[in-house]
Design goal:
This protein is mainly β. It is built from 3 helices and 29 strands.
Length: 544
């Protein structure tokens, strides 16, 4: 059936391209990543029987007026190490048709959607993380009046090449108060209100427990902006939803997220608080890791691009967490003693996450015992167990037309048992110095030095990276991560890695060779395990 639908899509698209060549638009992109694998016992890298693995995909999209259609080819032959082997294979798992007519917008096929901040519903894909929980079904968007937006979805989520057993039904509405009330249209204060309801249906086939087949969840949100000030918040609740994530307890769940920001005259401030209690929400109660996630819990920590600062990343804990984050950034004006000729930016950031304060139901039942309500918790009471701490300061300054630098100091406390299921609390100090030297109008040399110091886990690390670029086409880089403080002297390994690439218009080719350390890769609080690797990597991307 799927093959017939894909064939029909091609026929329709071809017809449009033939009979409406002056109006239609065809676009797309392609990506391919190939890795070879050599055994390396020092870093724990394994060889694989097929010697190499490949991930690839290509998106094709056609637009004609208010109509659009698209599909995505994917080929995992076989999937790169660190990606679930369930992806192995070749096919077209994603295709859609969309049409907009006046105030009505509908999509049939596969689609991605997010309600509010995503606590109840966020279907999305990230090839880097190996996440794709697209919905296949129907989505309808309707704007009956100016200032009112309604979205309804029905469908099932992608699980590799199949679809999960749970049926998702959702409705989201948003009111933009300033558009609804003419007298407020020109006011400086902008206000919007929103609400969502999402339910999932999954048959109860458990031999032990009586499980709810229909699980409903709801959320309320608001967004206020006045000049440089911004405040938004969302609260969500969910009825009891026993699952593998929460050890099949029957406690209802809830979550609260509040964000506030201010930006003006070189000063920027962001503050966030988050409380999550038993809010794992999947369309299959038996799944784990990144599979069939319906809801998304935004992280309450800063995202980093430097490799050693991602050695111990924070991941959201849907079964329970309470935390806060604050960041202050100030741009010291150019021409002053502290700002220098080009200005200086200073950023301070603090993130703190703890457990919830959980109380056992009675003297004879352990906290989280399966088949019970699990525990009780006071909404505003912080638990004693530390999950994550991050204190950092960053200074960026342009010294001249040719030189600029960024310096960072960070201290973290990372509960490895909570994040990875092993170890204990790791305390580490990190420092980064990045210097860029513009050698000529089209040539630049960028150098990174990084250090991580800890007495726990694998001990101290050092890293050096040099990248030379010739704009707009060529770039070359070489790096070395050295685990010089490993308690096991035989594992004090240099992770050498070199790469070069060529860019022309929308095409990019990169070839790399070297060693990759084992670790956790996180983006936006969602993580996957990355195995150690020794070998070549070829990456090709293109768009049209």
């Amino acid at each position: 059936m799927a093959k017939k639908i894909v064939l029909l899509f091609f026929m329709v698209s071809l017809s449009f391209s033939i009979y409406a060549q002056d109006q239609g638009r065809l676009s797309g992109n392609f990506q391919m990543d190939v890795q070879s694998y050599r055994a390396d016992s020092l870093i724990g890298a394994d060889a694989i029987p097929e010697k190499m693995a490949l991930n690839s995909y290509a998106n094709i999209r056609y637009e004609l007026g208010d109509f659009s259609a698209g599909l995505r080819f994917e080929g995992y032959m076989n999937a790169l190490q660190g990606f679930d082997p369930g992806y192995d294979g070749v096919g077209v798992p994603y295709f859609f048709a969309r049409y907009r007519f006046d105030d009505l917008d509908f999509t049939v096929g596969d689609f991605y959607e997010q309600f509010g901040s995503g606590i109840l519903l966020r279907t999305w894909e990230d090839k880097f993380l190996g996440v794709d929980n697209a919905m296949r079904g129907i989505r309808v968007k309707y704007h009956p009046f100016e200032g009112i937006s309604l979205t309804g979805v029905v469908g099932k989520q992608r699980l590799f090449w199949e679809y999960g057993p749970g049926l998702i039904r959702g409705l989201d509405g948003e009111l933009r108060i300033n558009d609804l009330i003419p007298a407020l249209k020109d006011k400086q204060t902008l206000l919007s209100l929103g609400g969502s309801f999402v339910s999932k249906y999954q048959a109860d086939d458990d031999p032990v427990y009586i499980l709810p087949e229909n699980v409903g969840a709801w959320a309320y949100r608001f967004n206020i902006t006045r000049g440089a000030l911004h405040l938004d918040s969302e609260y969500a609740g969910k009825i009891n939803d026993p699952s593998a994530d929460n050890n099949f307890i029957y406690k209802p769940g809830n979550s609260l997220i509040v964000n506030a920001s201010y930006a003006a005259s070189g000063l920027g401030m962001n503050f966030s608080v988050k409380r999550v209690d038993n809010m794992s929400f999947r369309s299959d109660r038996t799944e784990n890791l990144n599979k069939l996630m319906m809801g998304y819990l935004p992280p309450i920590s800063k995202n980093y691009t430097y490799s050693l600062m991602n050695l111990y990343p924070y991941s959201s804990q849907p079964t329970g967490e309470m935390g806060a984050q604050g960041e202050i950034s100030y741009n010291i004006r150019r021409g002053t003693k502290l700002g220098g000729k080009y200005g200086t930016q200073i950023t301070l950031n603090v993130s703190m996450v703890n457990s919830l304060d959980k109380t056992a139901l009675n003297d004879t039942t352990a906290i989280g015992a399966n088949g019970t309500l699990g525990y009780t918790s006071e909404f505003f009471k912080l638990g004693k167990e530390l999950y994550y701490r991050d204190y950092n300061v960053e200074i960026s300054r342009k010294l001249s037309k040719k030189w600029k630098f960024t310096g960072i100091y960070q201290h973290i406390a990372y509960n490895q048992m909570i994040m990875e299921g092993k170890g204990a609390v790791i305390n580490a100090d990190l420092a980064v110095l990045e210097v860029t030297w513009r050698l000529a109008p089209k040539q630049a040399l960028r150098v990174e030095t990084q250090g991580l110091w800890t007495k726990e886990d694998k001990g101290n690390w050092a890293m050096l990276l040099a990248e030379y670029s010739i704009s707009p086409h060529w770039f070359f880089s070489v790096s070395d991560q050295y685990n010089y403080g490993n308690p096991d002297e035989e594992k004090r390994v240099h992770y050498l890695f070199a790469s070069f690439g060529y860019v022309k218009n929308a095409n990019r080719i990169q070839l790399s060779y070297g060693k990759q350390r084992e670790g956790i890769l996180c983006v936006g609080g969602v993580c996957r395990n990355v195995p150690a690797m020794n070998g070549f990597t070829l990456s090709i991307t293109s768009s049209f």
